[in-house]
């Protein structure tokens, strides 16, 4: 009886766990048995691995092969284990030395001819390998740039199983990472391309500075989508930690671009209004995959024509909006994905959506029902409401609107002031600060709080709405360079909410 061993990584959510793969070659009829809670894709790897080994010029064992993946109680999903399975079998058959396998983690899917294909979740898998104390990570050559984002672990790329075998025998070398990665480019579009809409532009600046959520309403063609698409151009570049977070999520989702594997600019995600709950928040059969809310982490989630989106889809946004995280429960555990995004909603005022309100042909009940999908609890989580109106004819001749770069300078200064203020608590933007902290440790002067208390007393807003108004007031204060919000800052923040209710 011969035993072989190799290591791979199981990724759940954006967290990885080291998986030990053991191969046992015993007496009996030639067969392959895979144990350790494999899914359908992993079960099919038996045929892929056997064909890849034989087509790479190596001999497949004649006896009964048992492949065990440990921990046995951890569900194993996907084809990322193929390379490690093949190495474990070759090790058990004494075809390769085991010295280099001891400290290495093998990631990659095998083609029938022995080529190593890219798999989902390479970046979080390499991060988990480093945390587990592995010294080397072998990844598909096409995923080498992605894996090389992780410091503290040696990353090598293999194009074929043959190359891996030669490396294990000390007869060849695998490809190391090459040079610096190209930085991501900011999305096209500048704020100075938006005609007029000074009020909406100011609201967008406040939203960018504090990480607040926005609702834009108005007739079609007025610039709602155009404004939303330019919000990422106002946001600062992602920090190194944020870049790795976002890149790991996109890697698990399988949407990471090969030419720019490191995402350094805030992502912009705009799902269609017919999207499902699973596509929005994540899920699916077997392994729970990230949805639009997680792909928009540290960026912008734009829902155009939000009144046409299903009620269940909109209500599913409540938890990630409040907690910045989405938890997807499955039979075998819970997958957690970060979801700290800025939500931008855009909607027409009614189904007929005329250019002027006086031309509306909708019945009063139809107008109320149209925006009725935006429930009270959901609207309570929106910080800034903006009702946009048509522009005068002179707006087209106007020039000299501020560019995104100019506004971004003020946004970065405001964010820096907020980050310094909340540094000891671990928050980076005003939108992340819990309400109890604002009410107790950073309580505003009585004269500044008077408008909020009056609105609460009259029932115009909830306690959550009051907390969100105070967060916006802090952002407005940061934009003007103040130390603590005053009455005017609070009034502007309340005006952002009460205008949308009108």
UniProtKB/TrEMBL annotation:
Matching SMART domains: AAA
TM ranges: none
AAA+ ATPase domain boundaries: 210-375
SUPFAM superfamilies the record matches: P-loop containing nucleoside triphosphate hydrolases (SSF52540), Ribosomal protein S5 domain 2-like (SSF54211)
InterPro entries assigned: AAA+_ATPase (IPR003593), CHLI-like (IPR045006), Mg_chelat-rel (IPR004482), Mg_chelat-rel_C (IPR025158), Mg_chelatse_chII-like_cat_dom (IPR000523), P-loop_NTPase (IPR027417), Ribosomal_Su5_D2-typ_SF (IPR020568), Ribsml_uS5_D2-typ_fold_subgr (IPR014721)
GO MF annotation: an example: ATP binding
Gene3D superfamilies to which the protein is assigned, alphabetical: 3.30.230.10, P-loop containing nucleotide triphosphate hydrolases
Family note: Belongs to the Mg-chelatase subunits D/I family. ComM subfamily.
Protein name: Competence protein ComM
Gene source species: Nocardia macrotermitis
